[in-house]
Amino acid sequence: MSQFPTAGHLASWAGMCPGNHESAGKRKTGKTRKGSKWLRRALTESGRAAARKKGSYPSLQYRRLVVRIGPKKAAVAVGHTILVTLYYLLTRQEAYHDLSPQQLDADLRARTTKRAKQQLEAMGFTVTLTPVPQAA
After folding, report:
1. DSSP string over 48-74
2. Domain range spanning residue 109?
């Protein structure tokens, strides 16, 4: 992994980075670049297989993306995530620990709350958040 200074360099070499063909602010295409076809195939298939694993981060990422961009592009995106994750696991010599679905839900709730608060404050409102007590 020492040949690649960052995970982005590895993903670019593998051909798993999204393309960026834009002209005058209009996005023309988002094709990935050419790379090792065997590695690309393996990562894309890994993305599809990870999408079938219930409660894992790649599965949740796939389900979130497939609605917007379709199943093939979502599988490539999950494959990219797997490659970047592998890069960091190998360079840091750590074991993989998937986030629990409860942690992912809590993170999503915190991001949504923060974004909504910032939008209201940008419109000139003063926002004080108080959680609603849970019904027993």
Report:
1. HHHHTSTT-HHHHHHHHHHHHH-HHHH
2. 100-128
